[in-house]
Fold this sequence. Notes:
Helix content: over 70%
Amino acid sequence: MNGMNEWMPISQVSQKVNIPPETVRRYARQYGSYLAMKRGEKKAYLIHESSLDTIKRIRTLLEQGHQHGQVKLLLRNENEANVHIEKEEAEHDQKLSQQMMKEIHMLVDQNKKLMKLMTEMHERMNVYEEILEQQQQLAVTSEQVDETMKEQRDYERKRDEYLLKTMNEMQEKRKESANPREKNRLFTKLFKLT
Length: 194
C-alpha cells in the first residue's frame, strides 16, 4: 500500500476489522501501548494497518472471557515473544548478511585471482604469437637460403662442366700437337702452301 493508506482513522479500521467504531476507540484507549497509533487532525486517533491483527486478537481474547488485565498480560507476552522472534530473526539475518559478505569477499578474491591468471595467460599468448611469427620468418629465411644454395650449386655444376669440357678440349689439342704424324702433316701442309 502507499504511505497515505498505512495510517487509518477509526472509521476505516472499524470497517476493515468488522468491529464497531466505539469499540475500536475503546481498544485504542485501553490497549494503546500494544497498537501502532498516533493522533491526527483534531486529535483523532490514527491506527497503523500493522495493528489490525492486534485489534482482532483483543476482540477474540475478550470474547473468550479474558479480563482486561489478562488481555494486557497475554498481549505483552505475545509482544515479548514477537520481539524475541524478531530479535532472533534479526540475529539470523545479521549472520546471513555476514556470511554473504564473507562469500562476496571470497568471490572478489577469486575474481582477482582469475583476472591475474587471465592477464598472465594473455601475456603468454603474446609471447607464443611472437615465437610463432619468428618461426614463420625463419621458415621464409630458410626457404630463401635453400633457394640461394640451389642457385649456387647449379652455378658450380655448370662451371665445373665448362671447366671439364675446356680441359678435355685442351688435352685433345695437346695430344694432337704431341702426335708426330700430326706434326708432320702440319709441317707438310705449311710447306705445301708455300
